[in-house]
DNA sequence: TGATTCACG
DNA sequence: GACGTACGTGAATCAG
C-alpha cells in the first residue's frame, strides 16, 4: 500500500523501550549460558504488548522501531560536550543491544537506524514525510525532545502512562506550542543531554520570554529591552551558546534515509522466525503464550524447573498477560482445599482481603483472594449480599458462598504456619482484619514495604502505581465496582462475578510484584533495611493500632463548647471592627479587609491572586491592629475545635471506647512514620490552650500513661555523622547544647549566657538540620537577612565539619541520585540535579534526609525490640510520635517499664552502630498525656 | 481538586 | 540585585 491519506504511521522509540526494560527488570540471565537477557526479555514483552494492543480499528498501517546508532552524531561535531555527561552503558546491557534489533526483526517490524543521526532525527524525518503525504503519525515515546514534532496529525503516546500527548499536552509541558518548543529548550538547556542553554533560565522563564517576544531570534535581537539586569546580561553575553543550543535540540527533518514510508507497512510476524528467536532466548512463558495463540508448536526449551521458596527468576513476571476471566471463584471447601495444598507445597502464598470499608477496626470481611502461581488466582466470596432486604432491613447473604467460619478454619493453620510465607500489599491492613476474626497472619512479606525500602523518594508504593510501573498493567479501578460520591456502594454489594476479577487480580499482582522485588532487594543492597527495619515493624504497628488509646469524650465535648463560645465572641468583635459581616475562615476575605478596606501594608498575594494571610504576617500586624490579633485568636480556636476536639470524638471506636490511629509505614520518604485517621502525631502541645487537649488522652482506671522521648536526637546524629568534636564532647558531658553552641559562636561564657543568645543558637542548630539558608533563618528569628547570614557564616567558621558534611552529602546525592542513613536506608533525590528553584528544595531535603532518617531508624529499632523487652509486664506500647513513645501500664509497675523502655531506646543503635554520642531519653508519667509528657 | 493554613517532630 | 527557600508530615476549609 502506498503511504498516503488514511494511513497511520507508528514510530516507536526503540532506545526508550530498551532502557525502560533494563531498569524495570532484575538482571536476568539465560539459564543455559548466563547471557544477560533481562532487557531483551522486557523489550520483547513490550513489543508483544504493543502488538496486542494495536489490532483494533485504529490499528496503524505502517510501523517502525527506530534506534540510535553509535554514540557519535552530527551534534557532537557542533558541540563536543553534547551528551558528554552520560554515564557509560552498563556492562550487562551492552551485549543485549543487538539482540533487541533481532527481536524487532523477529516480530517482523521494520527496524531502522542511521549512522551519524539520533533516532529522534529519523523519527522527525519520517513524521514530516508522513504528514506531508496526508497521513497520521503516532510517536510512541515520552521523550520531551520529540515534542517539537507534535501537531497537524502528529501525536505522541506515552506507552508507560498510556497517555496521549497532543498540542495541549506540549503546551502544558513547555508553556508554548510545538513550533516554539526548540526556542524554549534552547534557552532552558538540558542537563541530561548536556545542552548548555542560558544559565539561570529554566523552562518557566524561557516560556515566559518566548511568549513575550514571539520567537527566540526576536528575543535575542531585542535582549537589551529586558528589565531584569542579570537576565538581560545573560541573553546578550551567552547569545552564541543559546544559538548553539538551539541547533542541538532542533531535530533534523531531512536525514538521508535509504528507505521510504512504503517499506514500513505493517506485516504479520512469521511464526517460525518469531518462536525460534523467543525460544532461543529461553523466554518460556512468552514463547508458550505466542505459540498457543498462533496454534503452532514451539521449539523446545531446556527445562530446569527450580523448586523452593525463592520465586522463579528467569520468567519475568511481565511475561504473562492478565486474564481476569480465568480467575477462580471458590464456593466450597472442596474447591479451597487444593489451593491450601499448593501453598504448602510452594511455601508461599499471596493473600488479599476485601472489606466493607477502610477502617480496619470496624469493617466486615467480605472475601479473601489467594495467588500462588502468577496468572492463577482465586477469590473466596464470604460476605456478599444478594440485594434483597429481609424483615429487619438488612440484606441476606448471596447464594454460593462458603460459610465464613468454615473458610477461616481452613485458612487459619496456613496463615499462621511459620514455614509458609504470606505475601501481601500493605499486609498490615489485612493482618488487622484477620486478627479481628481470630486469625493470625505470620510470617509475612509486604510488597509495599519492599518497594519503599528500594525506592523511597522515587515514586509512591500503592498497588496501582507499582502495577503500572513494574508490570505495565493498570489494575481494575475499585471505582468501577463501587462507584463514587454518595451513590458509592460497599464491596459486599458488588456482584460476586465482578468481585472475583477485581479481588483475584490484586492477589495476582501482589505475587508478581513479590517475584520481581525479592531478587531486587539484594541487588539494590537494601535487604538489611527491609529485613531489620521494615518487615519486623509492620506487625508491631498493627498491634499498637489495634490497642488504641483511651480518649475521654466528655473532656473533648466540654472543650468544644468552650471554644465555640469564645469563637462566637471573637466573631462578633471582628464584624464590629470590620464594619460588616464576613467569613472569618476565608483568608481571601480577611486579606481584603486588612489590605484593601483598612489599607494596611505588608500584604502579599498568593500565586492564585488571593490575599495571603498566614500567621506570621498577622502576628506582625497584631501589635498595632486588634483585627489581626482577633483573627489569630479565632483561627487558633477554630483549628483546635475542628481538627481536635470535634473530629477526635468521631474517631472514638464504639466497641473499644478508644481511638485507633493508622500508621503509614511508607508515608514519609525519610523513614519516619505518618499517622492518619486520626493523625495522633500532631496533637497540640506548643500552646497552653492546645496542650489541654492532651488531657483527654487518658489511661484506663488503675493505669498510667508513660511518655519516653529522645532528647535532641537529630542534633546528636548530626554531631555523629558530621563528626564535630566540640558537639560530640558537649553531648558526652551532658551540656545544654544550645547554650554551648551560643557560647562558641558568640564568645559568651556559659555562665553569662542570656536566654536571647541561647534562643538564636537554638534556631541555628535547627536550621542546620534543615539545610540552613540566610533567608530561612532570618524569617525564623525575625532579623535582617544579612545578620542571619552573618550568624551562619560564623557557625560554619566554628564548626567547619558541618559545612563539609553538607557539601559531601549534596555531592553524594548528585553522584548517586540518593542519600543514605547510617543504617543503610536509601532516600532517593531525583530532583537534585534539577535546575531552577527546585534545586534548592532538593538540596535541603538531601541534607536533612540522612539526619531525620537515621533518627527514624533508631526509634524503629527500639520499637521492634520493645515488645520483647516489656513482655511479662502489664504494659502496652500505644503511640509513636517521631522521637517519643507512649505506653499504658499498671500504675504500680510504671517505674519498671520506664527502666526497661529507656534502656531499649538508649541502646537502639547497637549493635549495628556504635555511636560515640550517647542517646538519652527523658521520661514522664501521669493520668493523661499532658501530665506524662 | 488544589490551594491555604496550621497542628506536630 | 531577579527569584524563592528552612526539613518531614495530615487534616480542615475555602474556592473554583
From TrEMBL:
Its EC number is 2.7.7.7. The keyword DNA repair applies. It is an enzyme of class 2 (transferase). Gene3D superfamilies: 3.30.70.370, 5' to 3' exonuclease, C-terminal subdomain, 5'-nuclease, Ribonuclease H-like superfamily/Ribonuclease H, Taq DNA Polymerase, Chain T, domain 4. Residues 298-318 are annotated as: Disordered. Residues 300-310 have a biased composition (Basic and acidic residues). One of its GO terms (molecular function) is 3'-5' exonuclease activity. Residues 327-522 form the 3'-5' exonuclease domain. Residues 690-893 form the DNA-directed DNA polymerase family A palm domain. It catalyses: DNA(n) + a 2'-deoxyribonucleoside 5'-triphosphate = DNA(n+1) + diphosphate. PROSITE patterns: DNA_POLYMERASE_A. GO terms for biological process: DNA-templated DNA replication; double-strand break repair. InterPro entries: 3'-5'_exonuclease_dom, 5-3_exonucl_a-hlix_arch_N, 5-3_exonuclease, 5-3_exonuclease_C_sf, DNA-dir_DNA_pol_A_CS, DNA-dir_DNA_pol_A_palm_dom, DNA/RNA_pol_sf, DNA_polI_H3TH. Keywords: DNA damage, DNA repair, DNA replication, DNA-binding, DNA-directed DNA polymerase, Exonuclease, Hydrolase, Nuclease, Nucleotidyltransferase, Transferase. Residues 4-267 form the 5'-3' exonuclease domain. SUPFAM superfamilies: 5' to 3' exonuclease, C-terminal subdomain, DNA/RNA polymerases, PIN domain-like, Ribonuclease H-like. It comes from the Bacteria. PANTHER family: DNA POLYMERASE I, DNA POLYMERASE NU. In addition to polymerase activity, this DNA polymerase exhibits 3'-5' and 5'-3' exonuclease activity. Single-chain monomer with multiple functions. This is DNA polymerase I.
Amino acid at each position: 500500500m502506498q503511504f498516503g491519506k488514511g494511513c497511520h504511521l507508528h514510530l516507536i522509540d526503540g532506545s526508550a523501550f530498551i532502557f525502560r526494560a533494563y531498569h524495570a527488570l532484575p538482571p536476568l540471565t539465560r539459564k543455559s549460558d548466563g547471557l544477560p537477557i533481562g532487557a531483551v526479555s522486557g523489550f520483547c514483552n513490550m513489543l508483544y504488548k504493543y502488538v496486542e494492543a494495536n489490532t483494533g480499528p485504529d490499528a496503524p498501517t505502517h510501523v517502525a522501531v527506530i534506534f540510535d546508532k553509535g554514540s557519535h552524531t552530527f551534534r557532537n561535531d557542533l558541540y563536543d560536550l553534547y551528551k558528554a555527561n552520560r554515564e557509560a552503558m552498563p556492562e550487562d546491557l551492552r551485549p543485549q543491544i543487538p539482540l533487541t534489533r533481532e527481536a524487532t526483526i523477529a516480530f517482523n517490524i521494520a527496524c531502522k537506524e542511521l549512522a551519524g543521526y539520533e533516532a529522534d532525527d529519523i523519527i522527525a524525518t519520517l513524521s514530516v514525510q508522513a504528514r506531508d503525504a496526508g497521513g497520521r503519525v503516532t510517536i510512541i515515546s515520552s521523550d520531551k525532545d520529540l515534542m517539537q514534532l507534535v501537531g497537524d496529525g502528529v501525536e505522541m503516546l506515552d506507552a508507560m502512562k498510556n497517555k496521549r500527548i497532543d498540542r495541549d499536552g506540549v503546551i502544558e509541558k513547555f508553556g508554548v506550542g510545538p513550533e516554539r518548543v526548540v526556542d524554549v529548550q534552547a534557552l532552558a538547556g538540558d542537563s541530561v543531554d548536556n545542552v548548555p542553554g542560558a544559565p539561570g533560565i529554566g523552562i518557566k522563564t524561557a516560556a515566559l520570554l518566548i511568549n513575550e517576544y514571539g520567537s527566540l531570534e526576536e528575543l535575542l535581537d531585542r535582549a537589551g529591552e529586558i528589565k531584569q539586569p542579570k537576565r538581560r546580561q545573560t541573553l546578550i553575553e551567552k547569545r552564541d551558546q543559546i544559538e548553539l543550543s538551539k541547533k542541538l535540540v532542533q531535530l533534523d527533518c531531512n536525514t538521508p534515509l535509504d528507505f521510504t514510508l512504503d517499506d514500513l507497512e505493517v506485516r504479520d510476524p512469521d511464526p517460525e522466525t518469531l518462536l525460534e528467536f523467543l525460544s532461543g532466548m529461553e523466554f518460556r512463558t512468552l514463547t508458550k503464550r505466542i505459540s498457543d495463540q498462533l496454534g503452532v508448536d514451539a521449539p523446545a526449551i531446556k527445562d530446569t524447573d527450580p523448586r523452593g521458596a525463592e520465586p522463579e527468576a528467569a520468567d519475568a513476571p511481565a511475561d504473562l498477560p492478565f486474564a481476569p476471566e480465568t480467575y477462580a471463584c471458590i464456593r466450597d471447601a472442596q474447591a479451597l482445599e487444593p489451593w491450601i495444598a499448593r501453598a504448602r507445597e510452594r511455601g508461599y502464598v499471596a493473600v488479599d482481603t476485601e472489606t466493607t470499608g477502610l477502617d480496619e477496626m470496624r469493617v466486615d470481611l467480605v472475601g479473601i483472594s489467594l495467588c500462588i502461581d502468577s496468572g492463577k488466582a482465586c477469590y473466596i466470596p464470604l460476605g456478599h449480599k444478594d440485594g434483597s432486604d429481609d424483615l429487619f432491613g438488612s440484606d441476606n447473604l448471596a447464594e454460593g458462598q462458603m460459610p465464613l467460619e468454615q473458610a477461616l478454619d481452613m485458612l487459619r493453620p496456613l496463615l499462621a504456619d511459620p514455614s509458609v510465607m504470606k505475601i501481601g500489599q500493605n499486609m498490615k491492613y489485612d493482618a488487622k482484619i484477620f486478627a479481628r476474626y481470630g486469625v493470625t497472619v505470620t510470617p509475612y512479606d509486604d510488597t509495599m514495604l519492599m518497594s519503599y525500602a528500594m525506592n523511597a523518594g522515587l515514586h509512591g508504593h500503592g498497588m496501582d502505581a507499582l502495577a503500572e510501573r513494574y508490570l505495565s498493567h493498570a489494575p481494575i479501578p475499585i471505582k468501577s465496582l463501587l462507584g463514587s460520591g454518595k451513590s458509592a456502594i460497599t464491596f459486599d454489594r458488588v456482584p460476586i462475578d465482578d468481585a472475583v476479577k477485581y479481588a483475584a487480580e490484586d492477589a495476582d499482582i501482589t505475587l508478581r510484584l513479590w517475584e520481581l522485588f525479592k531478587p531486587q532487594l539484594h541487588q539494590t543492597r537494601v535487604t538489611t533495611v527491609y529485613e531489620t527495619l521494615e518487615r519486623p515493624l509492620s506487625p508491631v504497628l498493627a498491634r499498637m493500632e489495634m490497642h488504641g488509646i483511651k480518649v475521654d469524650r466528655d473532656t473533648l465535648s466540654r472543650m468544644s463548647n468552650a471554644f465555640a463560645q469564645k469563637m462566637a465572641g471573637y466573631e462578633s468583635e471582628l464584624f464590629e471592627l470590620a464594619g460588616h459581616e464576613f467569613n472569618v475562615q476565608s483568608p481571601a476575605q480577611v486579606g481584603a479587609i486588612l489590605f484593601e478596606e483598612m489599607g494596611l501594608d505588608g500584604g502579599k498575594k498568593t500565586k492564585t491572586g488571593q490575599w495571603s494571610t498566614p500567621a506570621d504576617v498577622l502576628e506582625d500586624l497584631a501589635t498595632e491592629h486588634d483585627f489581626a490579633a482577633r483573627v489569630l485568636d479565632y483561627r487558633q480556636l477554630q483549628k483546635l475545635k475542628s481538627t481536635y476536639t470535634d473530629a477526635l470524638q468521631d474517631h472514638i471506636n464504639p466497641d473499644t471506647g478508644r481511638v485507633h490511629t493508622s500508621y503509614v509505614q511508607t508515608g514519609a520518604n525519610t523513614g519516619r512514620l505518618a499517622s492518619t485517621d486520626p493523625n495522633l502525631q500532631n496533637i497540640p502541645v506548643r500552646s497552653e490552650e492546645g496542650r489541654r487537649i492532651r488531657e483527654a488522652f487518658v489511661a484506663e482506671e488503675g493505669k498510667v500513661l508513660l511518655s519516653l522521648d529522645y532528647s535532641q536526637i537529630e542534633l546528636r546524629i548530626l554531631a555523629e555523622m558530621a563528626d564535630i568534636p566540640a558537639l560530640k564532647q558537649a553531648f558526652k558531658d551532658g551540656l545544654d547544647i544550645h547554650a554551648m553552641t551560643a557560647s562558641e559562636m558568640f564568645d559568651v561564657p556559659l555562665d553569662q549566657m542570656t536566654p536571647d543568645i541561647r534562643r538564636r543558637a537554638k534556631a541555628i542548630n535547627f536550621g542546620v538540620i534543615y539545610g540552613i539558608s540566610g533567608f530561612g533563618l532570618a524569617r525564623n528569628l525575625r532579623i535582617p537577612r544579612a545578620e542571619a547570614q552573618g550568624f551562619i557564616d560564623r557557625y560554619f567558621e566554628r564548626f567547619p565539619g558541618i559545612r563539609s558534611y553538607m557539601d559531601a552529602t549534596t555531592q553524594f546525592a548528585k553522584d548517586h541520585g540518593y542519600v543514605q542513613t547510617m543504617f543503610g536506608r536509601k532516600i532517593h533525590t531525583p530532583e537534585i540535579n534539577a535546575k531552577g528553584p527546585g534545586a534548592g528544595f532538593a538540596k535541603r531535603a538531601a541534607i536533612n534526609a540522612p539526619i531525620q532518617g537515621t533518627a527514624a531508624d533508631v526509634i524503629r529499632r527500639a520499637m521492634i525490640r520493645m515488645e520483647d523487652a516489656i513482655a511479662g509486664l502489664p504494659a502496652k506500647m500505644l503511640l509513636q510520635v517521631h522521637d517519643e513513645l507512649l505506653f499504658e501500664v499498671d500504675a504500680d509497675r510504671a517505674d519498671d517499664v520506664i527502666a526497661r523502655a529507656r534502656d531499649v531506646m538508649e541502646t537502639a543503635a547497637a549493635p549495628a552502630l556504635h555511636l560515640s554520642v550517647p542517646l538519652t531519653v527523658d521520661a514522664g508519667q501521669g493520668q493523661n498525656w499532658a501530665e506524662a509528657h
